[in-house]
Each structure stands twice: as structure tokens, then as C-alpha cells.
Amino acid sequence: MGLGSILLTCVLCGLLLVLVALGVVAALPDNVLRGMAFWRAEILVALWGLAGVTALTGAAFRVEGEFGWFPVFGADGPSLPMLAILACVGGLVGRGRAGVACVLACLGVLALSPLVFGLFTGTALVLLAGHGKRGLCLPFAVLPACIPADSSLSVPLLGVMVLLVGWAIAVQRGPLGVLPACIGLFLLGRLLAEVGELPLLSQGVLLACGGVVACAGLAQAMRDRQAMALVAGLAACWYGMLVLALVLALSSPLGGADTFRTTVVLGMGAPVVALLGMLWVAQRNDTGEGGVLQTRLARCLLGVVLAQCSVLPPCGGFAVLWAALAGGSYSVEATQPVMALLAVMLVVFFVALGVMLSAALVRAGLLLLSAPQEEADAPAAMVLPLWVCAVLSSVLAFVPGTWLFVADHLVVGPPLLPVTWQDMTTVHFAGHAARLTPLLVLLGVALVLLATGLLVRVFGFMPFAPALRQVAAWRQGAPVYEIPPDRNGAAPVAEGCSGGGLLPLWPAWRGFFTTPAAVTALRVPGARGILPRRGKVFWRYARRCLFVAISWCEAQGMVLILLLMGAGLLAGLFVGK
Predict the structure, then answer these.
(1) Final residue of a domain: which of 393, 416, 434?
(2) What angle do CA 464, 467, 471 make, to 5 degrees?
(3) Residue 203, in any domain of the structure
(4) What Cα–Cα distance (Å) separates residue 95 from each residue in 23, 44, 45, 48?
(5) What phi, psi does 65 have (nearest 5°)?
């Protein structure tokens, strides 16, 4: 046996043993574990940390291969970097169904057979679905793994998978929302790498599905007032953006496709780790454990996490945006005019999503920091996950060459150039001259802030002058109307106003349309008769039958997955011919 075989055996055996131990510790009840139950959380975190370090070690040494005596699990390009990300998710979700779902997702990532991958990941999605119609719909997300990649049904099923996974992300609460995103991106990248370049219509279908998921998540982040739902919308938006970049990297004939591959790798680094920290804080906030943000240090850590998800210049989101802009530039230079125009439109849409995502991050920060807090300060151990997410995301953002070197094969493509110590701090592309050094950008931003502080201190210059006139709080932001003067030339003053003759129109119109008389006048008169009554009875009967069918599917979730895998295997055999 050579050194490579020994390293492969150590990495794979270590990962499988750790995952089995994680499944046992996460699933067993307290009375079975006895004295270990008190240390269950610490044991789970230690095991997930060991799994993440082992996966990163194997990815750094480019460990690839399988067991000759057990050809079920193996390691290849995307498996180990994705397993490191899933280890971060598992370290935050804890025990129970969520912990078992993370273990099953990791085993699915290491699986060599598409059927075994679908069985493990489909079971993980069933555990995430909970109750309701999601238990019936989410197992169909793994159906593309059961048919040949070159089948005519592959692209429509991939579009359905993107939509279902986006729905699963949007309804999850806490760090577990990143788990469906990792499963969906892993499956999409595997199948697109096997298919290669797609026709324009197929590309349009996948791009449209990714755009729909991103816009729906952004709308949820802008509309919801609950912290967990808001941050889940941010995660869905980020997943949709990565789907757009992944389709452009693997299935489009654009000249700068390799730069979009780097965009996906960067997007799975610092922003995802920071998003995990934000999901953890939102879950603690909505479950009544908001004391984690009581101290000033915890609020600063939350600010770091929010900044790493945004498109501020030195942060991880900015590196993703810069890579997408560079990819659009190279694509325009190397393609035909019509394709160049389409590439420009897609890049502009991607940038607009990033900017709106930053605005939603501001809303999330204001909601989390303005929530009522407990009086007692939180112990340092309670903010340890926030510490880890903030520090790790900052390292991945300011030293991006490290993550690019480790996760080189996270997306299938040509390998990167040999990495030197200087390349550890830069983002660069093979064959292109564009380079980004986040530490230099951070130094430039610090110098600008220092110069602004000197201007304010020495010359008394204030960049933002105070408002000349203060108005009541209930009138701020509302449109106003100038009341014309009366016959004597004196401008009347509205009741409740301090002066100026201003009348807020928007509260007046809103109050008019919400009065009972206005609602009664605008309401459509209900139809009366025997047909509407029978229609209501029929609708109630159909809804009751649907609820009974869904409850049966929830009770028989594993049977449904097995039937789904068998049907997909048979369909793949016939369609492949």
C-alpha cells in the first residue's frame, strides 16, 4: 500500500466511524446514555469538529478513491469540501431529528451510487419536512439522482428540485435551513458536470427556477417580521443566487465560465458560515433566549456576521459579487453579441439581488438588535457559536486563497494554479489578470475612515448635517400636503401640528379605507344560492380527503422514499435505452 492509499483509508474510515458515533449519540434517549446524557451537547460538538477537520485534511491533500472491499462510500472532488460545510451545520443543530438528518446528509455526500445518495438525502429531507404537505413533496427533490443525467427528463426534474429545495430552505428555522441548500447544490453540480453544455432553453429553465427562488426568498426577507422567517428568506435568496452562478459555470458556453465556478466556491465559504451564525442568533431570539445579544461583544460579533454576508467592500459577499462581475466581463469579451447581452442581463440581475440582499440584512440586524433582551448578561459559553462563525467567516473572507485551495474541486472544472503564500490572500483566475486582495481593500477603507475622522476632528467638518426642522414621530416618512391659505391670507394650522400648515395625506387615506363604512362599501356582495353552498361543501370534503392522504404519506415516509427510488430506477433503465 502506498502513502495515498493509507491516507485514503484513514480519512474515509475516520469519517464513517465519526458519523456512526454522531448518529448514535444524536438519536439515543437520555435513559440509555445515562451519565453521558449530561455531556451530550459537548460530545456532539467535538465529534462534528473532528469530522470537519478530517474532511478539510482530506480535501487539502486531494484524497480521492474508494474502498475495494466496500464499494459503497468513497471520496472525490466535491464530497470532502461539502462535508466540511455540513459539519459546521451539524455542530449548531444539536440532537434529535435534526442531528440525524445532518448525519444522513453527510453519508449521502460520501455515497458512490446515485440510488444510495437519493436514499440517504431523501430520508434527511423527510426528517426535515415535519408535518403537512412538505412530507409529501420534498422526497421528490432527489428524483433527478435516480435517472440518467442525459435523459430528456433530467432538466425538468432539476428545475423541480431547485424549486422544492428553495421551498424547504424558506420554511426551515435555524441553522438547519442550510442543509437542504447543500444537498440541492451538490446534486445540481454533480448532474450538470455529467451533462456538460445544455441547450439555451434548458439553461433558461434552470436560470428561471433559480431566479424565482432568489426573488421569493428576498420577498420573504423583506416582508416577514419574525426573525427566523426573515433569515430563512435570506438563506433561500443566497441559494438561488448560487444556483444562477452554478448553471452559468457548468452548462453555458460562455467564455468566462471558470470565473463563475470561482464565484460558487467563494459563495460556499465565508457567506455561508456567516449565515449559519445569523440563523443561530435568530433561532435563539425567537425561542426566548435573546440574552445572547445582551453584551456589547455579542452585538459586535453579530455585526461582523452581518457584514460578511453583505456586499460591503472588504467582506465575503463583496468577493462573490466581484467574481461575478469579472465573469461577466470575460464572458462579454469572448462570446457573440447576443450571448454577451444575455450575460450582461444575468450579471446585472445577480448584482441587483446582492444589493437587495444587503438591504434585507440591514433589516435583519435592526430586528435582532431591537428585540427585547433579558436583564442578565449572557455567559461567554452561550455566544461560542457566534464567536466561531464570526472568526471563521472573517478568516475565509480576508484570506480567500486558503478556501479556494481547499475547496478547489467543490465545483467540477479545471484545477487552479499552484498556490503560493502570496496567493493565500488573493482571489485570482486561471488565465486572467484580474486579482482581488481583500486585506488591501480593508486597509483602504480604514484609511478613508481615518481621513474622515481627522477632517471632523481638526476642521470641525460634519459630513451629515442635522435636520433643520424636526417633526413629530408619527409624521416622519409620510407624504405631506400644503394647505392653501384662507381668504385673509393666513395659513391654517392642522390640529396636532406644530406649524407650517402641513397635513399628512397617507395616514388620512389609510384611515379612510380601513374604516368599517369604507370596508362595507368596497366589499363585493357575496353570491347566494344553492350552487355556492354546494361548492363550499365539496371544497371542504376535498380538503379533508387531502389532509387524510397527507397524514398517511407522513406516516409512511420511508416506504414512500423506497417506492420513489424503485420507480426512479426503473424509469432510468427504460429512459436510458
Answers:
(1) 434
(2) 150
(3) yes
(4) 9, 8, 10, 12
(5) 145, -170
Residue 66's DSSP bridge partners are: 74
> Is there a single domain that holds both residue 361 and residue 231?
yes
Q: Is residue 101 part of a domain?
A: yes
Cell numbers 449521502 correspond to: 108
Contacts of 501 (CB under 8 A, 6+ apart): 482, 483, 485, 491, 492, 493, 494
The answer to the question of residue 496 being in a domain is no
- Residues 227, 350: one domain? yes
Q: Verify that 71 and 152 share a domain, yes or no.
A: no
Residue 536 lies in a domain: no
Contact 227, 285 (CB under 8 A): yes
Amino acid at 524: V
- Shared domain check, 274 and 156: yes
Residue 45, domain extent: 1-128
Q: What is the pLDDT along the chain (577 residues), one digit of tens a residue?
A: 567 678 888 888 889 999 999 988 888 887 777 777 778 888 898 999 999 999 998 888 888 888 777 778 888 888 999 999 999 999 888 778 888 899 999 999 998 888 889 888 888 888 887 666 666 778 788 888 888 877 888 889 999 999 999 998 988 888 888 999 999 999 999 999 888 888 889 999 999 999 999 999 999 998 888 888 999 999 999 999 999 999 998 888 877 777 888 899 999 999 999 999 999 988 888 777 656 777 788 888 888 999 999 888 888 889 999 999 888 888 888 778 888 888 889 999 999 999 999 989 988 888 888 755 554 455 555 688 888 999 999 999 999 988 988 888 888 776 665 566 777 888 887 777 778 888 888 888 888 888 877 877 777 655 555 555 565 665 555 555 455 555 555 545 444 444 444 445 555 555 544 544 434 443 444 445 555 666 777 777 777 777 777 666 666 665 666 666 666 666 665 555 4
In a shared domain, residues 95 and 196: no
Question: Is 123 in the same domain as 178?
Answer: no
d(CA 374, CA 309): 27
Secondary structure element (H or E) that encloses residue 145, with its range: none
Question: Which residues lie below 8 Å from residue 480, measured CB to CB, with a gap of 6+?
Answer: 502, 503, 504, 505
Could you tell me if 90 and 421 are in contact, meaning their C-beta atoms sit under 8 angstroms apart?
A: no
Task: Verify that 420 and 452 share a domain, yes or no.
Answer: no
**70, 97, 128 — which closes off a domain?**
128
Q: Are 311 and 244 in contact (CB under 8 A)?
A: no
- Mark residue 387 as left, alpha or beta (left: phi above 0; alpha: psi -120 to 50; beta: remaining): alpha
Query: ∠ CA 256-184-575 to the nearest 5 degrees?
Result: 90
Number of domains in the chain: 3
Cα 496 to Cα 423: distance, rounded to the nearest angstrom: 64
Check whether residue 293 and residue 418 sit in a common domain.
yes
d(CA 95, CA 25): 8
- Taking the CB of residue 16, how many other CB atoms lie within 10 A of it? 17
**Which residue in 76, 60, 85 sits closest to 406, CA to CA?**
60
